[in-house]
Amino acid sequence: MATTTIHSGQERVNYLNVRTSVASWLLTLDHKRIGILYLLGITFFFFLGSLAAAAIRLELSTPKGDLLSSDTYNKMFTIHGVLMIFFFLIPSIPAAFGNFVLPMMIGARDVAFPRLNLLSWYFFMIGGVLATIALLKGGIDTGWTFYTPYSSAFAKGEVSLAIVGVFLVGFSSIFTGINFLVTVHKMRAPGMTWFRLPLFVWAIYATSLIQVLGTPVVAITLLLVAVERSLGIGIFDPNRGGDPILFQHLFWFYSHPAVYIMILPAMGVISEVIATFSRRRVFGYHFVAFSSLAIAIIGFLVWGHHMFSTGQSIYAGLVFSFLTFLVAIPSAIKTFNWMATIWKGRVHWDAPMIYALGFLGLFVIGGLTGLHLASLATNVHLTDTYFVVAHFHYVMVGGAIMGYLAALHYWWPKMTGKMYPQSWAKLAALLVFVGFNLTFFPQFILGYMGMPRRYHSYPEEWWALNLLSSAGASVLALGYLLPAIYLVWSLKYGTAAGKNPWGARGLEWELVDTLPSPHNFERTPIVTRPAYDYAHPEEPTAIYPAPRPVFAGGGKDG
Amino acid sequence: MSVKEAELHLGEARHEVPHLGEQYETIEQQNDAYTIGMWAFIVQEVLFFGGLFASYAIYRFKYLYEFVAAHHTLSVPFGTLNTFVLLVSSYTMARAVRAAMQQKHHKQLKYLLWTIFFASIFMVNKYFEYSSKYHHNLIPNQSYSAEEVIHHNHLKVENGMVDLGARKVPLEEFEGRTKLFFSFYFIMTGLHGLHVLVGIIILAILAVRAGMDWKRKVPHADYMPVEMTGLYWHFVDIVWIFLFPLLYLMGGQ
Amino acid sequence: MAQHHHEEHTHAQPISFYAKTLWVLMALLVVTVWAGFQKMPDWLGIAVALTIAVSKATIVILNFMHVKFSSKLAWLFAGAGFFWLLIMFAFAFADYASRHWEPETGW
């Protein structure tokens, strides 16, 4: 394979310098490098999706539809939705940070199936490129939900191509899920029992369950839409005996749990960050761990709450409404336990912690407004208004992206070996928090007043709140731009981070070097303490067993 | 395993098993990981086909009479033969896995070839079935016509209404709903057939490998690829075990 | 050592085990085709056909796929897929079955 660079002298071999050719990256089987590849991919799609969001907010800064035609506007929010959900949020934390740190956290040399891991990155990239081509070449205007019969019988443009892209990224997600499930079950180091696992691992495990159990259903459903478009059969077309509501059932069977694919990994990150920067074991560890599983399982029983006003049976609606309220319980358990952790902890105000606190504030608002939408009576008033838009942005942007940024700032030193300027990072966190609230809080009010989503013009009286929202979006954009600058800057000028810059517990900080070696550990470690054992700073979480002549492997590939 | 057991395991067996992946400690760990991974993949497949089965079930529930009429145009003998062939292929696959586990490469090759043989019969049958549907204009595209369904069931059509005994349906709606049945028939059996084809390709690769192992008299080859392909193949068989009664038999002959 | 070790850990069963399994499957195939030609109400036809199909699938999973001899984890994974399928069926059908119910007066 690729050329091997042999480093003479003092420099230790790590996962970055072990091989440096382009081919060594594109054919790598190292989970850390694949994590970095994902990070680059999702950053690219995040950037494209943000451009579309900027166009939307610019258009909405005046009541008239003057900047974009209604057609172009439809295409813009579709680009924004498809890219942000399928190509950023769903792969973001699990595929990038899960790949990078999960094997280290459980004391493994790699994931269970490294080749499958690389394959899933290629599926992700090819799917992303196809979807981007579809969105640029003529575009699609169905919204990210591809609702039938609009998407199947009426929509022009490259709907089928976009569906192929989403289909591929779906299988990328399934492969990642399978890999992590098996990795957590089978690759844990000796002594790493289930209740010694960091909570991030529990969260990724729960996420993987959803990925494996839910994604195939949306894959087959979208495939049916593509077949319907190309062959003219009528599976979801009411004119030909089909039932469009069936599409919604199948679509939301995946897409509601998919919301938890986005938020559960972020919750895992928050558990890590809060424990580290409060120097305290997460309060109620078992409850937080099991609440991840509970969210994953109950999350599969609530999909009908997206269909309260579509002709679904009201009795089904009642059941779905009740079950939706149940999801609030494990979410609340997590939130209260995090606050209890901070309460008696010794809080260190580093940048990742600021992001984590931002997560707490925004997620609580996002979660509680979900209850308004979950109850049948208020849902009728609020459905398809900006209230819904604000609600899911509070969860997905305020929750998932805050978690993503917290993860990025928390593990950046381990990934790059460099520390970024703390003050700039804290400023960026503040800008994101303020900008986010400015952007989306007015949308709750607009939605309550009845402003419907997905229109490019609106009556004059909603102008002030919309302008405020657009102004907030520019602050938010600045908050996203800053990390891009100082993080890249830190690659060259940042100070060396050292092995454990945060004073954190956990195998990835205590045993793994910065930068990690290709196989993470010198030898397979033996775990002797539970996660977050800040109460016993003198006891290492894991030790290496006494040296013995072990295998001479470790070098087939980077 | 306990810490002590693990310590004993460390470093052992690595040199003795050439196909042990470098991320694993022991061959047991690797085999377990393969098995669980394959099952997770099958779970994924269950839900992939499950979406189709659920849609089919809901439409059959909604348009019972039209679907029953369309059921009757499928050939039960052909379906039975195909079920028979796939069940036998599952048996030969199980024998191939057994031979692989016992490192009997020649036997393994023989049973893999039998499995490919039966799978091919299945595909040939499917080809004949599809082409008969084509000749009767039952392919659910623009040229679809419900004439064959009406003719086959001896249904009466008066004033543009199809008499289904229990109720009368406008011809246009009857066409749409039976077309829906054939859409499901072709998508479900088509996706299943695609899985059979993929299976044949994998089996062929395994057969070549078994032949090479036999020639070289490899003392202990990795039997896991055969066992995992076996799991996949049995799953494909299970899908057909459900497709057969749902599509061919549940028409109340 | 390696040869010995292989024999100890595989799930290989006697040939008669696989042959018997095949015979049972064949018998069930005959029964299900026979039942398909009997006059019975639609719901009963569905119940009979599905019961036989589930039995056949279970036999294949336990005997041919060796779940009978596998770890609890394999049982769990094999079961999870079908359980989740059941969730999808139950909730989707709950909607279709109750869509035309008339609300009671006073609700």
How would you describe the overall organization of this protein?
The complex is a heterotrimer of chains A (558), B (253) and C (107). With 558 residues, chain A is mostly helical. Chain A is 65% helix and 1% strand. Chain A has helices at 22-26, 31-59, 70-105, 114-136, 150-154, 159-186, 199-231, 244-278, 285-298, 314-343, 351-374, 376-382, 386-416, 422-449, 463-493, 507-510; strands at 418-419, 495-496, 526-527, 542-543. In chain A, helix 2 (31-59) runs antiparallel to helix 15 (463-493) and helix 10 runs antiparallel to helix 11. The longest helix of chain A is centred in the N-terminal third of the chain and has 36 residues, at 70-105. The N and C termini of chain A lie close together (10 Å). By secondary structure, chain B is mainly alpha-helical. Chain B is built from eight helices and three strands, in the order H-H-H-H-H-H-E-E-E-H-H. In chain B, helix 3 crosses helix 7 (171-216) and helix 4 (76-101) runs antiparallel to helix 5 (105-135). Chain B is elongated and about 80 Å long. The termini of chain B are far apart. In chain C, 75% of the residues lie in helices and 0% in strands. The model of chain C is unreliable at 1-8 (pLDDT under 50). Chains in contact: A-B, A-C, B-C. The interface between B and C is large, with 62 and 56 residues.
Shape of chain B: elongated
Low-confidence stretches of chain B: 1-13
Q: What is the H-and-E element order of chain A?
A: HHHHHHHHHHHHHEHHEHEE
Largest interface: B-C, 62 and 56 residues
Helical amount of chain A: 55-70%
Q: What is the straight-line distance between the termini of chain B? A: 57 Å
| Total number of strands of chain A | 4
| Mean pLDDT over the residues of chain A | 93
Which structural class is indicated by helix and strand composition of chain A? Answer: mainly alpha
Supply Rg of chain B: 24 Å
Structural class of chain B: mainly alpha
Mean pLDDT score of chain B: 90
The outline of chain A comes out as globular
- Assembly annotation: heterotrimer
SSE layout:
The complex is a heterotrimer of chains A (about 550), B (about 250) and C (about 110).
Chain A: H1 22-26, H2 31-59, H3 70-105, H4 114-136, H5 150-154, H6 159-186, H7 199-231, H8 244-278, H9 285-298, H10 314-343, H11 351-374, H12 376-382, H13 386-416, E1 418-419, H14 422-449, H15 463-493, E2 495-496, H16 507-510, E3 526-527, E4 542-543
Antiparallel strand pairs in A: 1-2, 3-4
Chain B: H1 3-9, H2 27-62, H3 64-71, H4 76-101, H5 105-135, H6 147-152, E1 156-158, E2 161-163, E3 168-170, H7 171-216, H8 224-249
Antiparallel strand pairs in B: 1-2, 2-3
Chain C: H1 2-9, H2 15-36, H3 42-64, H4 72-98
Helix pairs in contact in C: 2-3
